Amino acid sequence: MRSGLPTLTDAFVGLGPRVAGRALDTVALRTGDSVVTRQDLGERIAERIAELALPTRSMVVLQGESSLEWAVTYLALLADRHVPLLAGDRAERLVESWSPAAVVRADNGGMTMDRSDVEPTPLHPDLALLMSTSGSTGNPKLVRLSHENLVSNASSIAEFLALSPDDVGITTLPLHYCFGLSVLHSHLIAGASVALTSASVVDPCFADALAEHGVTNIAGVPHTYELIEQAGPERLRVPSLRLLTQAGGRMAPQAVERWNDRACSWGAEFVVMYGQTEATARMAYLPPAIATRRPGAIGVPIPGGSFRIEPVVDPADGELTDERRHDQDDETVGELVYSGPNVMLGYACEPSDLSLGRTVEELRTGDLARFHRDDGVYEIVGRTARFVKPFGLRIDLDALQHDLSEFAETADMVVTGDDDGLVICAPGACAPALAGEAVGRTGLPSALVTVDTDSPIVRTDSGKFDFAAMMRCARATTRTTTGNPDPGPTPHDAASIAAVFATVLGRSDVKPSDTFVSLGGDSLSYIECSFRLEAVLGRLPPDWHLLPIGRLSPRRRRRHVVAVDTTVLLRVAGIFAIVATHMGLRFTPGGAHLMLAVVGYNLSRFLLPIEHGRARLAAGLRTAGRVAVPTVLWVAAGLALGANFGVGTLLLVNNYVGPRSHAGDEWHFWFIEIFVHVTLLITFVSLVAPVRRFERRRPYLTALVALGLLLLLRLDWAWMNDWYNLRFRTHGVAWFVALGWLLHQSDTRAKRLFTTALVVATVWGFFDYAPREVFVIGGLLVLVAAREVVLPRRFAQLMVVLASASMWIYITHFTFWPPLVDALGVRLAYVPTIMLGVAAWAVAERLTRLVVHQWTHRQVGLARHDVRIA
């Protein structure tokens, strides 16, 4: 290390003021199954300085993912008084604009360095770190941060979050992003440790890391918490958790309340924070006690910092803005200005600026704020930089976005623009209606309003909206519709993945942040979607259906084999047994009851993880409808042709209103009836708030309670004087669904052993026919033992087709097998019966997708027609 100057690494790696007297053998970093103590880290830093061997104090571009190698390299650069310029994966423009002495990449594969022959850029002695203002490496303007900025802000964060050496943080955000870096700084300066991982928060590996390292603190931007909401918040709940923090953008007050309540129920705290890169990281925090009263506030200044509010004046005419005029009775509304030791030295727009000292003393945040005297907290009410003035009309983009979101009844919308016009990005919305509403609210000519309903909402690496990218995309799309060149191809893998989801789920609004579950995927579409994705990506992660589409990436492909979900094989076995039994080919009863357990397993997997009630209701109705509608149409057609069906069968309630004797066509669809009844029941019960809260906190116990309650309904008091038909009525066999639900929630060895015992104890003796019971128990124990099975690719493809068509095989086989048996005999009629069911499924799927495609094409055509008119 260069002598004569104290280093930042002394504060971060050594025994800082908050941990004086503690030994150097305390853990600093955690990765995989290993830990790095402060002494180990100091030795690694010294070795890395020697490897870098930079002769003079230099600016160095640092790239790489969150890893031990990155952290060691970063701290080594600080220790040797170099100035890191932090970058993501795309650093070409930074290198071109700033001519660094070297470009270093550090990740789990090690460190590589490309040196430059350029003359070193003069650097001011106080300069410690360079960061982009937006988290985007394409922005040439940099924030100049000093040694004092980094240490003071890290110390303040450690103080107001009460970080201690017992705390363990984790990297949920890129370390080249100021929020992610502040997590590393604040934990190290407090003597705490940080678990390093590049896994997404919805990746099962992330949940494993939380438990393995005993993580106490989790940080995230609003988009992070949106992903967790979709995938299931319980994945964050570990016994060690004490603190959830949020920054990097405004979180909706309702979401703040929800997470505050959730954290409280977990015995943890949820702390909202406010900051900017220009203030190193944090400027304010919202104490959890106040969050219950002011969920929309940013809180109070951090230790050592202060705010003042300055009236906002329109530079064009020197008058107070419209917002200021509307608040003449409240003198505390205006631009928020921050002062403190963490305020940057200033911006750098060209290399010569790196030799400058401090050029700013306070930070004009660009945010409009109100001060609430009763609580002593500040609230952001708008942003000065989010105003545009096209056609001479001043427009508040945030206010317009809020109004249009309410009008369209969607939060999935971004309004941006410049003095040339407005751009509204609203995937899947109705473009003509949105454009008309925007014109009516703003008074702009329609030619200045561009509505993009085809492109996804784009975010930066830090999860913030990338307004510039969305404007470019929307305007390029508009030019394409008028005959100008296409803006360029979409990356092959991303396009292929989105195409799979769009095709299988019939959705035209697929976005990178969506998951299979959030898009309404269910057990019927899961099979086909997983097989198609394997062809694009190779082997899928176990919980791919919970991962955002943007996180799915190519993995090692298996040439001749493929992993197939065990439920696929159980559905095939179940439908084969059903058809064989009904035809009299081979008496193998129990197939339908085995499939009911698979129904419960899949409802737990695809329906219950959906966090928002409205989305869960829509998914439940869609799942029931995908089975109910084809059945009702088939029965209606049969009635028209003289089939022996009753009104009860048409209404899917025949298992209660049908004949006492289990004979004739009237009882054919009892399995479909139970599927629909139970799916709707679980959907509506999950909307009851206390039930939902209990289920999210105790998913296994909830399934166990449901199983216990439903088992009571198979006792003699519920037989309806008809013991034989109990096994075909919803209340009598819904416990099979609960058993499958419980099976899915058995995520530990102890739970699997207990569930296995329950499977045997509850199924054995129920039918009073041992072969049926052995068949059902055997199928369920296979699911306990293995959740996927590796099969030859061609055989797996056949299984996928049969499982996907299983519902149609069930619906149609009653109609097809009698004439086929008369013509061919039982043995020869079996395969054609199955094949005709598959053919019916293929035709139905094709017709459904054709209808969806035509509807989507019509909506897109309307949107583009509107743009051309504009």
Which class best fits the helix and strand makeup? alpha/beta
Oligomeric composition of the shown chains:
single chain
The radius of gyration over CA amounts to 31 Å
**Stretches with pLDDT under 50, minimum 5 residues:** 15-21, 134-139, 315-331, 479-494, 661-665, 856-870
Strand order in the largest sheet: 11-12-13-14-15
Contiguous helical run count: 30
* Global geometry: elongated
Largest sheet: 5 strands, mixed
| Mean pLDDT value | 82
The CA-CA distance between the termini, in Å, is 63 Å
Secondary structure topology:
Layout: H1 8-13, E1 27-31, E2 34-37, H2 38-52, E3 59-63, H3 68-79, E4 83-86, H4 92-98, E5 102-107, E6 110-115, E7 127-132, E8 142-146, H5 147-160, E9 168-170, H6 178-189, E10 193-195, H7 204-213, E11 217-220, H8 222-231, E12 243-246, H9 253-265, E13 269-274, E14 284-286, H10 288-291, E15 300-301, E16 306-310, H11 322-325, E17 333-339, E18 346-348, E19 363-372, E20 377-383, E21 387-388, E22 395-396, H12 397-408, E23 414-418, E24 421-425, H13 431-442, E25 449-452, H14 467-481, H15 492-505, H16 523-537, E26 561-565, H17 566-583, H18 591-607, H19 613-640, H20 647-650, H21 654-657, H22 670-685, H23 689-697, H24 699-712, H25 730-744, H26 749-763, H27 770-785, E27 788-792, H28 793-804, H29 806-824, H30 826-869
Parallel strand pairs: 1-10, 3-4, 3-5, 9-10, 11-12, 12-13, 24-25
Antiparallel strand pairs: 1-2, 5-6, 7-8, 8-18, 13-14, 14-15, 16-17, 17-19, 19-20, 21-22, 23-24, 26-27
